[in-house]
Structures are given as C-alpha cells and as structure tokens.
C-alpha cells in the first residue's frame, strides 16, 4: 500500500509539506495521539497520521486543515509488517526523513486477574505493544537518522504495575525497557528518544479499564499534549 493523503488542496498541501518538518504519529485517530497530531500541526509540522480508524483520521484532518495545517492520512494496522515497511519506504521516497516520531498506538485488553487473562487478548496485546513497537523502531530509525535532529517519543503509564493490569502491564513494561535501550543506543547516532508520562486522560483506552470513573477529573487530551510537547526541544 502507499500513502493516502487527505488535505485541503493538493497544491497548498504540497507547498506546506515542502516547508514543514515531518511528524509521524501512530494511534492518531483519537485520544492522546490525535491531540498530539493537532498540536504538532499547529507548531508547523506536516503530520503523517497512522491509525486503523478511517473516520477518526478524516476528522483529525478536518481539524488540522481548518487551522491551516496539513496531514497525510494512513489507515493501517501497525501489526501489518509489510504495510508498515511500505509506508516507511514511501515516506523515504517522498520526504527522505522523519523529524519526529510520536508512538501513541496501544492495545489495552480488559483488566483481569492473571489467571483469567484471555489468550487472544494476550496475543494481541503483546503483538501490538511489543512486537509492533520493535518493528516500528526498525523501520523508522533510518528516517529519523536522515533528519537534521531526529526525535522519537514513547509514553509511559505509571499504572501499568497495578493489580489486574497483568497483560497490559507486562507489555507496557517491555515497551518501556525497549525504549530505554533504544535511547541509550542512539545517544551518539543523531536520534534522541524521549519517554514521557502523560497524566490520566478521558481516552477510550482508559474507559476500558475504568468504565465507571468520573471523567471530569481527568486531564484534557489537548492540554496534556501541549504540556508534553513543551518538554521537547522542538
């Protein structure tokens, strides 16, 4: 598959792309990923937005273009190795690099005691949160190294070690360990890896964990995205 673009106009978007930094955002159709994509577009980045939900990506593009930004939409499951490799090849052919990777895609299975973890949920969680992250690092690192100052962002979750978070927790712990190793390995190769910790937000992922929670007490996704981006040397 190739990149699927959606923007206000081909001419205007092409001009914007040529003068913008490039941000690749996974899990961009909703929640923190969507908010990060919008905030980066407002800061002058052309957004390459990856997610499985086409409708969510189109809504994101509407919001970005309404504010004068531009986006390229890529409906894809990050577990699809061939598609992800082709996407990164297409990015290299079109732009030659990625300035910033924001990896917000995550799979959150239902909370359950370890003895009751469903095998299919476990397999999908490990595949999405660990294996797909490893493959993403493999495919995107050359694009980040080709940028003047390539950066990558992963997100930690302090609640990953809580009881009943077994499948999610083990996958998130492994992902964070992977991110720390990647950060240490790239200190002298031109890529800076950041691990940021968002505050609890009213996302669909969190709703699966805490369906009866008072969501009014949670941090707004857009406010949180701005706070997190302020921590980066963009």
UniProtKB/TrEMBL annotation:
Q: What is this protein called?
A: Oxidoreductase, short-chain dehydrogenase/reductase family
Q: InterPro entries this protein is in?
A: NAD(P)-bd_dom_sf, SDR_fam
Q: Whose protein is this, by species?
A: Litoreibacter arenae DSM 19593
Keyword Kinase listed? The answer is no
Q: Where is the signal peptide?
A: none
Cytoplasm listed as a keyword: no
Similarity annotation: Belongs to the short-chain dehydrogenases/reductases (SDR) family.
Cellular component terms (Gene Ontology): membrane
Which is one Pfam family of this protein? adh_short
Q: Note the superkingdom of the native organism.
A: Bacteria
UniProt keywords, alphabetically = Oxidoreductase
For this UniProt entry, the molecular function terms from Gene Ontology, in alphabetical order, are: oxidoreductase activity
